[in-house]
Design goal:
With about 325 residues, the protein is mostly beta strands. The chain has a domain of about 120 residues: Methylamine Dehydrogenase, Chain H (7 Propeller), CATH 2.130.10. It is about 0% helix and about 55% strand. A six-stranded antiparallel beta sheet has the order 14-15-16-17-18-19, with no helix packed on it. A hairpin with a 5-residue loop joins strand 21 and strand 22. It is globular.
Length: about 325
């Protein structure tokens, strides 16, 4: 199937995202940020690598964290602009809040919390163990950090504080919050998810995965959570007050010859895409159970995947640097 766009950028694709105008933007491991629609590329982190990326809270351009300790905002109009620099830091986790104009970037046990409106010195949030993932609630009032032993909870605007801890033994490697702020989910080192109902901190363990879970995405108005880590995309229901408690997950398009590496769903609909470790990508409509291969050719593992807000374009990136845009 021909793609609307296809190009090899020569290095690992760290992130492939759509901005608020549904324009694609790509973060490349060698420090570049590319805008495929505009045919533009910028050296956001010269002589360094990009480790993490997120769309800027304004919805325009890309925020990136690098192994040079720099947080950079790149737009296709202005190119790269440094937000801050933290000597010796490897900024491998990143989260932004559109509601509060905050950017959080983590390196090891330290998280730097930046207010893009005040532009004052960042808050420094210290943790007992390395931080593996960050996410804000929908209003940008709280910041959640996954780490060893659970998830730490910070008030984003409070100057002096000690975080609370949602406890669960083990190493938590990624984190996501439901759009209604009712459930917090982490991926764990032992091939499982763990969750908390935030109203009362009640625990839930969601296991049965054959491999590590690297990708989590709420979609369908927050009613469904898709994850990687299995032969198909694993989808958990959040349809009731108790979320997935007592519910079973569904595995979509399972293929024993491959593993799903990354998932991306439509924010408003039951449309889901998944990239595999053999380079293939499929698209499914869960209500009708229709599925199609939008990239059937095998190749490098898919490392980045995004669906546009209108759910009519899919942006794909792989470990060898190839980027594709599929248009429905």
């Amino acid at each position: 199937m021909p793609f609307a766009f296809e190009k090899n950028y020569g290095d690992y694709i760290v992130a492939a995202l759509f901005d608020s105008a549904d324009e694609p933007v790509v973060a490349i491991a060698d420090g570049r940020v590319a805008f495929p629609d505009a045919g533009a590329e910028f050296a956001a982190h010269p002589d360094a690598g990009i480790l993490s990326a997120a769309i800027h809270p304004s919805g325009v351009g890309l925020i990136t964290g690098g192994d040079d300790g720099r947080i950079v905002w790149t737009t296709k109009e202005a190119g790269p602009v440094e937000i801050s620099a933290h000597k010796g830091a490897w900024l491998d986790v990143l989260a932004v809040s559109e509601a509060s104009n905050l950017v959080a970037a983590g390196s090891g046990k330290t998280v730097y919390l930046h207010d893009l409106v005040k532009k004052d010195a960042p808050k420094v949030l210290e943790h007992p163990s390395s931080v593996s993932g960050l996410t804000f609630d929908s209003k940008g009032r709280k910041l959640y950090a996954s780490s060893y032993g659970g998830a730490y909870v910070w008030f984003a605007r409070l100057a002096q504080q000690k975080p609370s801890l949602l406890k669960w033994a083990g190493s938590h490697t990624n984190i996501a919050i439901s759009p209604d702020d009712k459930f917090l989910i982490t991926a764990m080192q032992d091939n499982a998810l763990h969750g908390w109902r935030l109203a009362d901190s009640k625990d839930m363990r969601m296991g049965g995965y054959p491999s590590k879970i690297k990708s989590l995405d709420f979609f369908a108005k927050g009613k469904l959570l898709a994850t990687s880590g299995a032969n198909g995309a694993v989808v958990w229901p959040f349809l009731k007050a108790n979320g997935p408690m007592g519910e079973n997950a569904s595995e979509i398009a399972a293929d024993e010859s491959s593993l799903v590496t990354v998932v991306s769903g439509a924010s408003e609909d039951t449309i889901l895409s998944a990239g595999l470790d053999d380079g293939r990508v499929w698209l499914a409509e869960l209500k009708s159970t229709a599925q199609e291969w939008i990239k059937r050719e095998k190749g490098a593992a898919i490392s980045a995947l995004a669906m546009s807000g209108e759910a009519n374009r899919i942006l794909i990136g792989d470990e060898d640097g190839s980027v594709y845009i599929y248009e429905a």
